[in-house]
Description:
By secondary structure, this protein is mostly helical. It has one domain. It has one helix at about 15-40, and strands at about 1-5, 10. Strands 1-2 form a two-stranded antiparallel ribbon. Strand 1 (about 1-5) and strand 2 (about 10) form a beta hairpin. The longest helix has 25 residues, at about 15-40. It starts with a strand and ends in a 14-residue tail after the last helix.
Amino acid sequence: MGWVEEIPGVNTQGRTLKETKENLKDALNLILETNRLLSRSAGKSTREMIIVSNK
């Protein structure tokens, strides 16, 4: 079983560690896409790209 501690709801399982990692990537992508769709339907919003650098 595997999960992403920083993002609630991202958890999965697999028969091997490799399969679990692949499933986690899929689960993370699904959660991010779902959250993106939900935030768009929640109302009018604006998006602005911000570039962050540690230089």
